[in-house]
From TrEMBL:
Enzyme class: oxidoreductase
Pfam families assigned: UDPG_MGDP_dh, UDPG_MGDP_dh_C, UDPG_MGDP_dh_N
Record-stated family: Belongs to the UDP-glucose/GDP-mannose dehydrogenase family.
Taxonomic lineage from the root: Bacteria, Pseudomonadati, Pseudomonadota, Alphaproteobacteria, Sphingomonadales
Record-annotated UDP-glucose/GDP-mannose dehydrogenase C-terminal domain positions: 319-417
Coiled-coil features, chain-numbered ranges: none
GO MF terms, alphabetically ordered: UDP-N-acetyl-D-mannosamine dehydrogenase activity
Keyword Oxidoreductase included in the entry's annotation: yes
SUPFAM superfamilies: 6-phosphogluconate dehydrogenase C-terminal domain-like, NAD(P)-binding Rossmann-fold domains, UDP-glucose/GDP-mannose dehydrogenase C-terminal domain
Protein name, entry field: UDP-N-acetyl-D-mannosamine dehydrogenase
Keyword rRNA processing: no
Keywords: NAD, Oxidoreductase
PANTHER family, per the entry: UDP-N-ACETYL-D-MANNOSAMINE DEHYDROGENASE
EC number: 1.1.1.336
Length: 432
């Protein structure tokens, strides 16, 4: 049974994961302080507004801020539970950078009291939670720390990765199963009591290292499978086959479920996390490494094919459909669509028009290129060549009669009925 008393919670990092998490915990009735290093983020949230796009998040944040259950600050304050959701990027040679986690743990250590629980949610290399534990032990020698004492520890430390999909974050935060890894089983149980307050999905406990690896494995599994689809798409172009048709047919087999090819893998998770495994065991991860390379290579392949196509059609305007790393979101981080469109803009200047309903202006990568952000109608009116890079629903719903006379390079397979769908320059030569 959960105690009636609501723990006070401090969430460190108010980004795509931290803010929705803070808001959902606040909705469950716990008083939540969200902490971020950016003053603009703190001010925006304290005004009941949000600095990111996510379905239904604005209403939720506005509600919990106006009820007083969520407030934001630049400073960590005392709390019963600390949730760390800060970024873990990689540096040169794909070496994971856990410095934000350690900075956050340092701030938590200063506010820590006996009885508190600290949970790391950031995607992290195996062993990070133990490293964080060691840092806290060093900073707070007055506290008994789990795994380092024979007595009952004063605090609990656990790792619990988020698993949510951008665009469905609130739904998945509530309904997805959670895997909770404690430094000790007692730590896992303490963290479990906390998650059961606001998670409807199943919560299973394990140790911290297994939970860290589970998160990395989930995203690597997807990366490897997308790499398979991307490799098939290049092979199919080479063999003059329609990859979408081949995948659709193969997936009729009851034990085959091939993912979709695209212009490469974007976002800050799937394109990053597999490197954390490779870095941990470089001699034993040829498959995971090559999958990363295949997916990154697909972006270069699309750029090359698009350039060949454009070179055959001098002086016409080219519309790039989409900059977001995936459908129906405003997130451009690590986006292959953005990389391709920006490189085309640098190559072809003002001939390039970009259609991105989720952007108000072109990102910095387009500066000085002469490329323009246009809406769907303008692109249809002025661009004989169209390259689809993101599968936004708004693009899918463009009917055939509005694009039948266009030359199209559809990297997402959103217009299967397109007659002039030129995947490769050889197709183009055939058509012309
Ligand atoms: N993609 C394809 N083909 C596909 C599926 C995806 O090319 O068939 C591309 C997308 O276009 C995008 C990239 O892969 O560029 C990643 O998109 P995604 O929808 O697969 O995943 P993310 O990055 O939005 O979220 C993933 C999710 N992980 C898994 O599905 C295993 C999510 O549950 C995680 O919480 C998230 O990473 C994270 O934060 O780690």
């Amino acid at each position: 049974m959960l105690s009636d008393e609501k723990p006070s919670v401090c969430v460190l990092g108010l980004g795509y994961i931290g803010l929705p998490t803070a808001a959902i915990i606040a909705r469950s009735g716990c008083p939540v302080l969200g902490v971020d290093v950016t003053a603009h983020v703190v001010d925006t949230i304290n005004n009941g507004k949000i600095h990111i796009e996510e379905v239904d998040l604005d209403g939720l944040v506005q509600g919990v801020v106006s009820r007083g259950t969520l407030r934001a600050s630049l400073q960590v304050e005392a709390a019963d539970v600390f949730v760390i959701a800060v970024p873990t990027p990689f540096g040169d040679n794909h070496v994971p950078d856990t410095s934000y986690v350690m900075d956050a743990a340092t701030n938590v250590a200063a506010a820590l009291k006996a009885g508190d629980t600290i949970i790391l949610e950031s995607t992290s290399p195996v062993g990070t939670t133990e490293k964080m534990r060691d840092l806290i032990a060093k900073l707070r020698p007055d506290l008994k720390i789990p795994g380092l004492t024979n007595d009952i520890p004063d605090v609990a430390i656990a790792y619990c990765p988020e698993r949510v999909l951008p665009g469905k974050i609130l739904e998945e935060l509530t309904n997805n199963d959670r895997c909770i890894g404690g430094i000790t089983p007692r730590c896992a149980r303490k963290a479990l009591d906390f998650y059961r307050r606001f998670v409807r999905g199943g919560c299973v406990t394990t140790n911290a290292r297994a939970a860290e690896m589970t998160k990395l494995v989930e995203n690597s599994y997807r990366d490897v499978n997308i790499a398979f689809a991307n490799e098939l798409s290049i092979v199919s172009d080479e063999m003059d086959l329609d990859v979408w048709e081949v995948i659709r047919l193969a997936n009729r087999h009851p034990r085959v479920n091939i993912l979709q090819p695209g212009p490469g893998v974007g976002g800050h998770c799937i394109a990053v996390d597999p490197w954390f495994i490779v870095h941990g065991a470089p001699d034993h991860t040829p498959l995971i490494r090559i999958a990363r390379e295949v997916n990154d290579g697909k972006t270069g392949h699309v750029l090359e094919q698009a350039s060949l196509m454009i070179d055959e059609l001098p002086s016409v305007s080219i519309a790039c459909f989409g900059l977001a790393f995936k459908a129906n979101i405003d997130d451009f981080r690590e986006s292959p669509a953005l990389k391709i469109a920006a490189k085309l803009a640098r190559r072809y200047g003002g001939r390039v028009k970009v259609v991105e309903p989720y952007a108000n202006e072109l990102p910095a990568a387009f500066e000085g290129t002469g490329a323009e952000l246009v809406d769907i109608d303008e692109a249809l009116e002025s661009c004989p060549v169209m390259i689809t890079l993101t599968d936004h629903d708004m693009f899918k719903s463009i009917p055939l009669d509005e694009r039948a006379d266009k030359v199209v390079y559809d990297t997402r397979g959103i217009w299967p009925d397109q007659p002039n769908n030129l995947k490769a320059s050889s197709d183009l030569r055939l058509a012309s």
